[in-house]
Amino acid sequence: MRETRMKSVVVYSLLLLFSLLFLAPFYWMITTAVKTPEELYLFPPKWIPSVFQWDNFAKAWQSQPFGTYLNNSLIVTGLSLIGQLLSSSLVAYGFARFHFRGKDALFLILLASMMIPWEVTMIPLYMEFNALGWINTLKPLIVPAWFGSPFFIFLLRQFIMGIPTELEEAARIDGANPVQIFLRLIVPLLRPALILVGVFHILSSWNDYLGPLIFLNDQTKYTLTLGLSQFRGMFGVDMVSIMAVTFLICLPPLAAFFLAQRYIVEGIATTGIKG
């Protein structure tokens, strides 16, 4: 019993140590955001400001049209999230439950596409969207999500493969067609995996910088990440304002992660590797 307690103490001590190491940069960002400019260059550095300057957040937010950037980010993240969940779940259901010629080959091609880095397709995508007249619009950041993501399709397919087929057979006997089975049976059971996919997509879309940088030219179309980059370029070493805006931008994805934490763990735990 004593040996078990000692092991637990050692394990939790190590976890606490590594947690503090990961939280230290985030803590430094918050404390920097509420410091006075004079306290930034003190040595040794002050971990706790003498006076908390809470108005730094309002000043930094109002120095640029971050309200417009926030609206653009919400539109891109929200619309692309709907398309990602709808398309990925439908394709995953098709690969998991329907039998057709060439299914294994198509699924292999789908998995192979995961190994192609986005930087390789960046120029062809720009040429394609330019031919469609979508450059300097939010469409290149939204429409591709409506065609699914290979990783999310694979993840949802593996989850569906773990659902007993007897449930669908019983629904089919009761007269349900494939669409009704998908909407009334599969989707409710997919909730943990869909929430997992949703959180992953929110983090990816919200923090995307390279996509808006390539496809957007007009400042009124900028997302928060691109606006923050311009903010840094304009104000140089104004670390107080940079950290204040960065902290505000981090809040929505952090809130989404913590609210869905239970479902994320459940989704990962219940997603098997059944082939």
Automatic annotation (TrEMBL):
Q: What is the phylogenetic placement of the source species in the record?
A: Bacteria, Bacillati, Bacillota, Bacilli, Bacillales
Q: Which InterPro entries does the annotation name?
A: MetI-like (IPR000515), MetI-like_sf (IPR035906)
GO biological-process terms attached to the record: transmembrane transport
Origin superkingdom: Bacteria
Q: Which UniProt keywords apply?
A: Cell membrane, Membrane, Transmembrane, Transmembrane helix, Transport
Quote the PANTHER family the UniProt record gives.
ABC TRANSPORTER PERMEASE PROTEIN MG189-RELATED-RELATED (PTHR43744), ABC TRANSPORTER PERMEASE PROTEIN YESQ-RELATED (PTHR43744:SF6)
What the record says about family reads: Belongs to the binding-protein-dependent transport system permease family.
One Pfam assignment: BPD_transp_1
The record's subcellular location field reads:
Cell membrane
Instruction: Quote the cellular component terms of the Gene Ontology held in the record.
Output: plasma membrane
What species does this protein belong to? Paenibacillus dendritiformis C454
Q: Where is the ABC transmembrane type-1 domain?
A: 70-260
Q: What membrane topology does the annotation report for this chain?
A: Multi-pass membrane protein
Does Coiled coil appear among the keywords? no
SUPFAM superfamilies, from UniProt?
MetI-like (SSF161098)
- Report TM segments: 9-30, 74-93, 105-126, 141-160, 181-203, 239-260
Per its record, how is this protein called by name?
A: Binding-protein-dependent transport systems inner membrane component
